[in-house]
Fold this sequence. Notes:
Blueprint lengths: L1 H27 L3 H34 L1
Amino acid sequence: MHDESHKTEELKLEQVQRERAEREAADDEPTESGTRTHDRRADKHAYLKEKLAERERSEREAADQG
């Protein structure tokens, strides 16, 4: 179970980094269309980060019960 939680944490960190990079790219984007694209990508990474946090909580609860 420890390996799964470690992997989940790595995936969550990856999503944080990707979200941050997309937010920065949106700020630097010269076109409105490009900014929207980067914002959508950043939102997707934020969503995935939240889902991974839910998974992490679930894994922790399962470990506590098992």
